[in-house]
Amino acid sequence: MQPHRSKYGNALEIGHLIGGEEVFEGEMQERRNPADREDLVARFPVGAKETLRKAARAAQEAFRMWARIPAPVRGAVLMNLAQILTREKETLVRLMVREVGKTFKEAGGDVQEAIDTAVFFASEGRRLYGQTVPSEMRDKELFTFRRPLGVVGMITAGNFPIAVPSWKLIPAVLTGNTVVWKPSEDSPALSYVFVRLFEEAGLPPGVINVVFGGGKDSTGQWLVELMDEGLLNKFAFTGSTAVGRWIGEVAGRNLLRPTLELGGKNPLVVLRDADLELAVEGAWWSAFATGGQRCTSAGNIIVEAPIYEEFKKRFLEKTESTVVGNPFTHPQVTYGPFINQRLFERWLEHYTWGQQEGAQLLFGKARITVKNPYPHFQGDPEAGLFGWPTVWEARPGMRQFEQEIFGPTINLVRVEDLDEAIEAANAHGYGLSSAVYTNRRDWAYRFKTEIKAGMTSINNSTVGAEAHLPFGGVRGSGNGARESGIWVIEEYTYWQAVNEEYSGRLQLAQMDTGYT
Ligand code: UN1
């Protein structure tokens, strides 16, 4: 291939990473900068079922060695990784802005989240505690040990291309597992570079294997089906609820416990006593940060009647100030392009839902183009897929109230009182993030105890979870498994109970205890 250069940088030609080898197997696909389709970011192959099997076998092989490395030594690799990621932060950020169209600021946050995760788990290698447990018999001791599960299959989305994979990869390898990872086809270059940095940190070949997929291929599906072949011992997935449900079924029939981080329709409630300025800013950021392409983005802003009109006026003013464009060439934009065509099309579709169901469009005119200009656009709108910040007035029961849209769209919903606000905040099938703005402690208490959500903010936006808190949801947002923080260790290990007999006799539990 001719080295492809643009004002953004070079294009990478990358292969799958299997057992430490770079493997070019399968048809080559391209990843282009979503803010400027002229810019080729990477060329990468699309893995077949056999490529995945090869990767799973390499991971099985590596597991025999890696599981035996002492956990503090595995942790030391992560400490190196944290240092290397810190050193490479700027390069990764630039690549992220280019490959998925995030702003520099948000890309910085994404990489920082991985650094924080590496720092957190590096010392966890020295704390993978088990217990000593008293025996009911004499001269006998009981212990518990955490053991790794084996080979973990992983599928991740492209909207958090470093942070979200780090939540999975880092605890998985710290606890002694090995991995076959199918990253998003929206972020092949970042995924490749990330794994190369693990290797530089001292991770042995075969511990993390990467097999790329492509838009219309079935690589992800085949990876899931490797559970049926007995090649995987655990599955971790971030993506849509529909796909997560299916992965849960395949894992279930193989008696595996998956980690499923799925969609959200996160409510942000503004009560009558709220600090309006704070609430407007938080709601705006929850709606439009990352162009709404976060699983924690707000879906509905639910506002109490006495302040509704005032909130609406201020929120629309704030929305009008949103700057959209190419984040690489115009770093001050609020958000950039859609990460991919599929998300754009779904977002476009919701304009029809709104009209069909009688929602009122308060702001927004679908795709930004030269003929349909948005006043605060920076760059070339035709070079990628960009959307107007969009605000609706909607009600529970409407499709756009209930379904995740994953784009720059928000609904304002008017409610009469706190009871109705909580009811509306729960009137959808998800339960990931949530927020309430109020200065009354009793109202905040009612909200946090009655909302069905894995994460709740009081006087803060729905986005921006910290790296050492449990991340995950209830209902359609996941299966209860948590990522991040200490809780995730539970998902990548099993407990082994060991008893050691010193009596020199066959003592029988429950029968030789002296009580019977
Ligand atoms: C996601 O969108 O999949 O809490 C993850 C947040 C980020 C992670 C989002 N720290 O918004």
UniProtKB/TrEMBL annotation:
Q: What class of enzyme is it?
A: oxidoreductase
The keyword Membrane belongs to this UniProt entry's keyword annotation: no
Keyword Repressor recorded: no
Which PANTHER family does the entry link to?
Answer: ALDEHYDE DEHYDROGENASE-RELATED
- Source organism per UniProt: Meiothermus luteus
Lineage, top-rank taxon, reads Bacteria
This one is known as Aldehyde dehydrogenase, thermostable
Q: Which residues are named in the active-site annotation?
A: E261
Family that this chain belongs to: Belongs to the aldehyde dehydrogenase family.
Q: Which residues form the Aldehyde dehydrogenase domain?
A: 28-498
